[in-house]
Specification:
This protein is α+β, with helices and mostly antiparallel strands and 271 residues long. Helices cover 13% and strands 25% of the residues. The chain contains four helices and twelve strands, in the order H-E-E-E-E-H-E-E-E-E-E-E-H-E-E-H.
């Protein structure tokens, strides 16, 4: 199995990861295995770097680099929103806080649901103080709700020891830490490669198969929402195709001249 590299991409690579740019925000494609920012619990990151260490390359003429408007887990890839200045970041923060931003994740899970779509409504709380951000189902915790839809399946073969795999599209209605990972594990179909809540070993297992595929940001009242789609990471392509994905990717407007003035809607289509 492929192992995460645990290293932030070089500055020139981060430019190629821009999915959308306008005067208020950037949407970039975060790689798996890289923390978005430095912190005491990122000391195990072998490179000693975080994704935001290279945000200076994303100024595009502004006096300061962009900043994180939200976060993704270290091992989750895909759409990450950055605010380009203080006012824009504050506005984005409110949109995230009030659930106005649409988020769709693709995941490969072990096993899978019997139905084709549904909702998970399981409150979450901290596992314990020693484990920091780690979560657990907790009836006294914070309300947490996710929707899911089966996109494809790979039937297993028990005599041959082949696991059933399912390709899910997941939408977190609330935004709790590790929400999708805990919800999937609690339902009995953990995300493939999850070495906290799933069956993957702590070291040497597959990379987490969870990808922030699409994000929809209603940043301007007078224009359509910005819609960005992150291409599937290399480590997920094979299993997604086994589950029925045809390999098609929508085009990005990053190289098509998104304006540095008023927000522009991205030209990428739906997934």
């Amino acid at each position: 199995m492929t192992k995460a590299t645990n290293s932030a991409p070089p500055a020139d690579d981060i430019l190629s990861r821009v999915l959308h740019r306008d005067g208020l925000m950037l949407i970039v494609n975060k790689p798996a295995g890289v923390p978005v920012h430095r912190g005491p619990r990122n000391s195990y990151d072998k490179s000693g770097r975080a994704f935001e260490d290279d945000f200076d390359a994303l100024r595009y003429g502004l006096p300061r680099p962009p900043v994180l408007a939200h976060r993704l887990d270290r091992d989750t890839s895909g759409c990450l929103v950055l605010g380009r200045h203080r006012k824009a970041t504050a506005s984005l923060g409110l949109l995230f806080k009030h659930g106005k931003i649409g988020k769709t994740y693709w995941a490969i899970v072990e096993g899978g649901p019997d139905l084709e779509e549904g909702t998970i409504d399981i409150a979450l709380g901290k596992l314990n103080e020693e484990r920091g951000w780690w979560q657990k189902p907790d009836p006294n915790g914070l309300p947490s709700r996710s929707t899911w839809k089966v996109m494809g399946r790979l039937p297993g073969d028990k005599p041959l020891g082949i696991k059933t795999l399912t390709w899910l599209a997941l939408e977190p209605i609330t935004g709790r830490t590790h929400q999708l990972r805990v919800h999937c594990a609690a339902m009995g179909w953990p995300v493939l490669g999850d070495n906290i809540y799933g069956t993957a070993p702590r070291e040497g297992g597959p990379i987490l198969h969870l990808h922030s595929r699409e994000i929809v940001v209603p940043i301007s009242k007078n224009k359509p929402p910005v819609r960005a789609t992150a291409p599937v990471p290399e480590h997920m392509r094979e299993r997604l195709m086994l589950c029925g994905w045809n390999g098609e990717e929508p085009a990005s407007d990053a190289q098509a001249g998104a304006s540095d003035g008023e927000p522009a809607a991205i030209a990428a289509g739906n997934t």
